[in-house]
Design brief:
Distance between the termini: 53 Å
CATH topology: Rossmann fold
CATH architecture: 3-Layer(aba) Sandwich
CATH class: Alpha Beta
Order of helices and strands: EEEHEHEHEHHHHHHEHEH
InterPro entries: AB_hydrolase_1, AB_hydrolase_fold
Shape: globular
Radius of gyration: 19 Å
Protein name: AB hydrolase-1 domain-containing protein
Oligomer: single chain
Organism: Gossypium tomentosum
Structural class: alpha/beta
Number of helices: 11
Pfam families: Abhydrolase_1
Strand content: 5-15%
CATH superfamily: Alpha/Beta hydrolase fold, catalytic domain
Helix content: 25-40%
Largest sheet: 8 strands, mixed
Length: 337
């Protein structure tokens, strides 16, 4: 008999005194509420518990569809949650790189996921994963980062790689504007004459051919429309998340040690060779400096490769079973210092 899967949406968890909540929440020790949803096999019957961390402008409702056959075969329980300020979760005015890992740990403890769990971070949802590797490595059973964002402030990047990268000055400019002129930024991105941030869904300058095809089957970036950005709370959350991700960290990820010294195949990075947002050269540099990370590269992959058919299955099989497909081994056409 097939294992009964958890529904995509859980029933309301609210009291008569509280406003109606679409999703269940947990109350953290600092009083904030974090909203979540569960998928896959029931937690008590699962072989592995995976927390999925969404990226910029997304939420716990992000598309991470996996065939039911694979979920049942591996006994996977998924936990997706709204990061601070996103979706139905309360904002964190003290958000930091470290607080992201502590939110994950407390969420896992309150939902009784056990001493160890897996984490998957997508795009900007990867900086909480670096935080987990730094601050709660003993809680991790396995780690995957999909097209993880790059912070050019990390000191271990060789200048020879970043000097000519056009994204470096752009990131620096956006950070300065977001930090020092938030009012002007909010005003400008909601003007009719200013291109909507959601235009990124339609412009090949940001995405490659496969990305554009994937966008036809996903909701894209619903928080990045002019209508949503007019909401001060939405703008504040996105700005705060951006500033933490691209600001100064209190550690250099490339100086971390493996949380799995007896098993070198438990941390994975998946990168698209044609990613126009995150350069593959810097991901290769990271994997070279941290040889305990298993690096996978999709030759025709862009920034949205998590939405490609077959990729989610490959990601899960690599993390849970140690499988590696020859198609996702990086080519040697460019060298990294």
């Amino acid at each position: 008999m097939a294992t009964q899967l958890l529904p995509a949406q859980l029933e309301t968890d609210s009291s008569p005194e509280d406003p109606l909540l679409v999703s269940p929440t947990v109350k953290l020790s600092d009083g904030r509420h974090i909203a979540y949803r569960e998928r896959g096999v029931p937690k008590a019957k699962s072989n592995c518990k995976i927390i999925i961390v969404h990226g910029f402008g997304s939420s716990k409702d992000m598309n991470f569809q996996v065939p039911q056959e694979l979920i049942e075969e591996l006994g996977i329980y998924f936990l997706l949650y709204d990061r601070a300020g996103y979706g139905e979760s309360d904002p964190n005015p003290k958000r930091s790189v470290k607080s992201e890992a502590l939110d994950i740990q407390e969420l896992a403890d309150q939902l009784q996921l056990g001493p160890k769990f897996y984490v998957i971070g997508v795009s900007m949802g990867s900086y909480p994963i670096w935080s987990c590797l730094k601050y709660i490595p003993e809680r991790l059973a396995g780690v995957t980062m999909v097209v993880p964002v790059i912070n050019y402030r990390w000191p271990s990047f060789p200048d020879s790689l970043t000097r000519e990268d056009y994204r470096r000055p752009l990131a620096k400019l956006l950070y300065w504007v977001a930090k020092y002129t938030p009012g002007l930024l909010h005003w400008s991105v909601t003007r009719k004459w200013f291109p909507s941030p959601s235009v990124m869904e339609e412009k090949p300058v940001f995405f490659n051919k496969r990305d554009m095809e994937a966008l036809k089957k996903t909701e894209g970036f619903p928080m990045l429309t002019k209508e949503r950005l007019r909401e001060q709370s939405v703008f504040n959350t996105l700005r705060n998340d951006f500033l933490v991700c691209y600001g100064d960290w209190d550690f250099d990820p490339m100086e971390l040690t493996s949380p799995f010294p007896q098993n070198q195949n438990c941390v994975h990075i998946w990168q698209g060779y044609e990613d126009k947002i995150v350069p593959f050269e810097l991901q290769r540099c990271i994997s070279k400096k941290l040889p305990w990370i298993q690096y996978h590269e999709v030759a025709d992959g862009g920034h949205l490769l998590v939405h490609y058919n077959g990729l989610r299955e490959a990601i899960l099989r690599a993390m849970l079973l140690g499988e590696e497909h020859h198609l996702y081994r990086p080519s040697a056409d460019k060298t990294v210092p």
